[in-house]
Amino acid sequence: MLHTGLVGNTERKGILEDLTLRGLLQDSTDQTALQERLEQGPITLYCGFDPTADSLHLGHLVPLLTLRRFQDAGHRPIALAGGATGMVGDPSGRSEERNLLDQNELSSNVAAVAAQLESFLSFDAESKKKGIAALLVDNREWTVEVNVLDFLRDVGKHVTVGTMLSKESVKTRLASEQGLSFTEFSYMLLQANDFFELHKNHECEMQIGGSDQWGNITAGIDMIRRRSSAIAYGLTVPLVTRSDGAKFGKTAEGTVWLDSKRTLPYELHQYLINVDDRDVEKLLLQLTLVSVSEISELMLDHRKSPEDRSAQQRLATEVCRLVHGDEEAEQALLATQGLFGSKSNSEDSLEALRGIVPETEVRASDLKQGEESLIDVLVLSGLCSSRGDARRTIAAGGISVNGDRQATDAVSLPNDLLLNGDYVLIQKGKKNRHLLVIV
Fold it and tell me: How far is CA 425 from the centre of its chain?
């Protein structure tokens, strides 16, 4: 979704307070000094995103939206796609070394990630006029032509090995059985140099990132101080976890991606609809641009009738809009409504299921003549492997038609079961659904 304007609902000097209220301020350099600097006028800040895949994932929304929050508060964000650092791999928060990507894959990933970064920030004429238009950079620009000797001389001499060894990410890996390669050990130098280059060429004064980036951020601050005697600032946001301790944005099927080709908007919507009540307020605060006061009111209403999942519905809608835009968010909502399989489903909600839920076409003439029984359809659709399997599953209460559980296998699919005259929604268990389309 292209961001074409500034929200402007957070005053420049109040951004730290807003981050604190949202639980987004994990670590920072001297907050008093940072607050004073923010009150003086717009600051340029950056956050880096390494293209280890061809899409950002749901966890990236927290630092990415933090950049957006700063821009909405009147500051200038730089989004960095790590075409250089992605070749090395960040050891922070990892128990083992990443597999190195080849150049073709990395270049493709950089292009994909850059496109996603652009959709969350404002690059338009209005923000340019205000001097806070976002900037998108790739650290290959200033890294790829530097030879090893120049890098060691110009960058390496400003960082002591003792300082690098003191960083938590390094200590953790050195103590592990996997150990730490020199390639990953040098990652900190590359990121520190990124901060210095952005400071020198774009007057960037602050870096933000996930809490696992604190050591890399402070290394960059030290680099700027040593090489230019300037003051720089750093801030980290928490890594989002669920109340059960699991990493947010992971499912049994894998990662929840921001790219609609890897995770359908409907699947993103469903993932968020199903978040635990214990997590929903935190996620509304950290993954949406809804004001803190409005979220407080929303949660008051939610707690009166938690079974309605109104907070989860707002969360799913807001995140889908941010990631995919209004139209895709509406389609995801319609598809979710269609899954309930009730007689009140609109044709739009059922149409939205097509391409999401597996479907089988059935001739209307066969339905009228009673030639398609429920057992036939279960086998035809692949929900059951045989007629015997279908009978056993029905007897066990594992089959629902249009939301109604079927207790007997002696069921045909007459026209009065059709949703909007053209559909029948069959469900096996909790997750396996199939749409019959009447032709």
Answer: 30
